[in-house]
Amino acid sequence: MEYWALVESLYNTTLSLFFFVLMSLMYYIGIKGYRAKNKYGGISSILCGICFLIFGYYNSVIGFLAFPYNGFMVWWIGMTLLVNLLFTTIIRMDINKMKREEKNEFKKESKNKEKTILRRYIRRMTRENPYREVIPFKMELIRKSFHLSGLLIFLAFFGFMTIPPITLLVNDSVITFIHQIEPSYNLLWGDIADFPYGFGDFRAVVEITMFALIAALAFTIASDIIRIVWGPEYSFFNFLSKSMLRNKEKNAAGPQIYIITGFIFSYMLYMAGLIHIFVFFAGILIACLSDASAALIGRRFGKHKITLRNKDVKSVEGFIAGVAVAYIIGFIFVGPIYAIMGALVFFLIDYLPSVTADNILNPIFIPIGLQLMIFLFGLPVGWL
Q1: Cβ count near 39 (within 10 Å)
Q2: Helix H or strand E encompassing 307
Q3: Pairs from 173-182 (Cβ < 8 Å, separation ≥ 24)
Q4: Which residues contact 294 (CB under 8 A, 6 or more apart)?
Q5: How far apart are the C-alpha atoms of 132 and 117, rounded to whole Å?
Q6: Angle, helix 255-271 to helix 358-377, in steps of 10 degrees
Q7: What are the pLDDT digits (tens) for 306-315?
């Protein structure tokens, strides 16, 4: 086998192993959460593990990324692990130092040092219960802002008006850069003539979008695993997101893991030619924006409460807002008829009692439901 073909195979195998390792960890976390009576988080984590198993198999058979992007991804995974472990080490050292100060009763010195951001964060994580049943509206607003990631994916793939697809800009910048460092690139990644994409290549848009999704998963899941196994104070992502944790996340993965996993699953279906790209974006934007609208409108203006069988309390106003936004998004991307299916699936997943996170169910089942309706009706995707 040619040397660079072997290197490509090693990188691809490493990426597949990454997903298989995540599968094992999610299964362990899911069982841990289930035994801790967090059925919601346990089952959701196990479902993520099943998705990771599928991702690993897909990558080993077909491949998510062409070389050298699969190599770039392996390096990115390594760097995210290094950053998270470095943060964990800093926190552990600071905790040990705080314990020594308290033991030696250096109260004045300790009080001064608690003014640092890290010290305040550690105190909050270790002296209070960071997991809450209900979080303040302001923190809920910050949490739901992560749902805007769906719009970022849209910009990455399509761009907007005068803004070209972000992935296309990235690809063109990478090509320009590697030509500037051609000797170094040839040493690390092989002949520059074998680079898989050219300037303005649409294939780059498709694959680099997947690269961004997997990179986001790698960054967030490393911190989440550390949070679950070692404690919330050791999580870098938890530190960046102001520790907005709910009881459903105790001994279980966080909502950011669920939604990114759902994104990757549906985008994988698009890459495999099983769903239309407009169906994908209709699904993930409904999952993001409709869920956020339902939660925020319900928290702010919800007066008519509904208690579901799983004891979650939601409001009629929140349901109306979520379904309305779902239909509008569906109307824009797949047309008024298919939009009904998108709104219906969102409503059913949001309303019916479930022991699984809607953050992973919505981005998977809404695109699948839409594509099935397209297959059955045979009508063109778009406005009718």
Answers
A1: 15
A2: strand 305-307
A3: 175/199
A4: 314, 318, 319, 321, 322, 325, 350
A5: 21
A6: 30
A7: 666 556 667 7
Structure tokens at 97: 């130092």
The model's pTM: 0.91
Give the separation between CA 8 and CA 70, rounded to whole angstroms. Answer: 8
Q: Which helix (H) or strand (E) holds 317?
A: helix 316-334
- Both tokens of 327, joined, read 């239909």
Q: Could you please report the per-residue DSSP string of 49-86?
A: HHHHHHHHHHHHHT-SS-TTHHHHHHHHHHHHHHHHHH
Q: What's the DSSP call for residue 164?
A: P
Rounded Cα distance between 158 and 164, Å, is 7
Which of these, 140, 155, 135, lies nearest to 296 by C-alpha position?
Answer: 140
Q: What is the Cα–Cα distance from 109 to 119, expressed in whole angstroms?
A: 12
Structure tokens at 10: 């090693």
- Tokens of residue 58, six digits: 């897909």
**3-state SS assignment for residue 305:** strand
> Which two structure tokens, joined as six digits, stand for 85?
């472990």
The candidate with the shortest Cα–Cα distance to 65, out of 197, 256, 220, is: 197
Q: pLDDT digit string (tens) for 148-196?
A: 778 889 999 998 878 889 999 999 999 999 999 999 999 889 889 889 9
* pLDDT tens-digit readout, 291-300: 888 777 877 7
Contact 253, 143 (CB under 8 A): no
